[in-house]
Amino acid sequence: MFTDLSKPVSGMDSKCFMCSSIQSRASAGNSIREVSFCDLGSKNVRHGSRGADSEALSVSQKEINDEDARLIHINDPGKTNERFKFAGNSVRTAKYSALTFLPRNLFEQFHRVAYIYFLVIAVLSQLPQLAVFGRAPSILPLAFVLLVTAVKDADEDYRRHWSDRIENNRLATVLVNDQFQEKKWKDIQVGEIIKIVANQTIPCDMVLLSTSDPTSVAYVQTINLDGESNLKTRYAKQETVSKVPEKEKISGLIKCEKPNRNIYGFHANMEIDGKRVSLGPSNIILRGCEIKNTAWALGVAVYTGGETKAMLNNSRAPSKRSRIETRMNWEIKHGN
C-alpha cells in the first residue's frame, strides 16, 4: 500500500520529479507569484502583481496621440511656449482677492440659515409698522457677528497670500544663455533646464537629464507629497547623462501626456541626438520633493505652477462647518 519514496517513480524522470512550480493566486486574482526550480536560466521568475506588470507594459509601449501630447523643446522655452502658452510657475492657494473678498465672504457666511433668519428680521424691523426694538438694535447683533467672522477669515487668507509670496519668490538655479543663473520660482518656464543641489526643494515637475552620481541616479524624498519619508530613486537616461549644459548646447524634444493628478504615473517620449527613448515615472521628479544624498541633479521643466501634480492634488481651503452648524441648519429648515 505504501510507495517507497527512495525509489524513482515509474514513468517519471527523477530530474523532472524534482522540478516544481509554485504558484499562488489571491482571491481577487490580482497578485501572482510563480517560482520555478527547474531551468531558471530559460524560464522567467515573476514576483509582484499582474496590474503592475500590465501597467509597465502599457507605459513602455503605448503611443501618445499628437492631440493629447505636450511638446517640450529642451532648453528652448521660447519655442516651447510659442504655440501653446503653458502656465507659469506661480502658485496661489489663497481663497480671496481684494475685489472678491466681500461678496464671497458674505456668500459663505450666509450659508448659515440662522444668519438669513436674522437678516430678514433686521430688514423687517426697518419698517415703522413692524419695528419693535428700533432699527439700529435689530441690525447691530448680526452686523457684529458678520464683521468678526470676516476679520478672522481675512487674517487667515492674508497668511495664505504671504505664504504664496514666499513660495513664489524662492530662488532656483536655471540655465540662461548657457550659464546657470538664479531665478525666482514664479519666473520658471516649461522647457528650461534647472539645477537642483542636495537638500533643495524641487520648484516644478522635471524630467531628469543627469545627476552627480556615476550611475545617473538621484535620491528623492517625497514626504511633502505623499507623506512617505523613505528615499525613492529616480534615474536619468544614458543619452543625456554625459552632456554638460555649460559647454555644449542641449537640444531635444519631449512628448509627454497632459497634466494629471496621478503622482505615481508618467508617460513620455524623448527625442535627442536622433534617438528616441521612453520616459516613465522613474525619470521624473515632482514639485515639493527634496533631493537627498545627491550633490546635484539637472532636469528640464515639463509641468509648472498649477499644472504640477502637487498643485492639481491640492484642494482649495474649505469653508469650515462644524457639526453643530450643520445640525442647526437642518433644524431651522425642517423644524416644526
From TrEMBL:
GO terms for cellular component: plasma membrane. GO terms for molecular function: ATPase-coupled intramembrane lipid transporter activity. Residues 170-234 form the P-type ATPase A domain. Coiled coil: none annotated. Residues 72-138 form the P-type ATPase N-terminal domain. GO terms for biological process: phospholipid translocation. Pfam families: E1-E2_ATPase, PhoLip_ATPase_N. It comes from the Eukaryota. InterPro entries: ATPase_P-typ_TM_dom_sf (IPR023298), ATPase_P-typ_transduc_dom_A_sf (IPR008250), ATPase_P-type_domA (IPR059000), P-type_ATPase_N (IPR032631). This is Uncharacterized protein. It comes from Camellia sinensis var. sinensis. The lineage of its organism: Eukaryota, Viridiplantae, Streptophyta, Embryophyta, Tracheophyta.
